Amino acid sequence: MQELTKQELHNLGMNIIGKKLQEMGYEFIAVNSELKKHPQFVLFKKGEPTIFVIVKTTNNIQSPQEYDVLWMETFKEHAKKLNAKVWYAGIGIANAESVELPVFKDQPYYVAFDDFIKF
Question: What does the mean pLDDT of the chain come to?
Fold first, then answer.
């Protein structure tokens, strides 16, 4: 079995969040799936401000919504200058058999995602 790389795990999280955003009726102005490049999604919906979505994928399914508060404050200031809102999507993905094991390609996994944190 082949373990997912950090980038592959991130892409899996992005796909899950992207589908959710599409179900919510958003269009993507831009998508960036490169690790540590933010935001991952720039959203558009008629009548609403631009939304920057930050996706952080982790194997911590207990508290995937944790984020770096200091970094987030800096990013929120950047978004404010562009009249954009910021949403944070912390998503936990873990091996379905045991959270102690890594996530493997083509193997079942568990997803922990409650909702977007909207700033």
Answer: 95
DSSP annotation string for 14-75: HHHHHHHHHHTT-EEEEE--STT-S-SEEEE-TTS-EEEEEEEEES--SSTT---HHHHHHH
pLDDT of residue 5: 96
Residue 45 sits in a domain whose CATH number is: 3.40.1350.10
Structure token pair of residue 76: 């929120």
Identify the domain containing residue 106 by its residue range: 6-118
The answer to whether residue 26 is domain-embedded is yes
CA distance 90 to 74: 18
Contact 109, 115 (CB under 8 A): no
Give Cβ neighbours of residue 63 (< 8 Å, ≥ 6 apart): 90, 92
Number of domains in the chain: 1
Model confidence pLDDT, tens digit, residues 22-39:
999 999 999 999 998 999
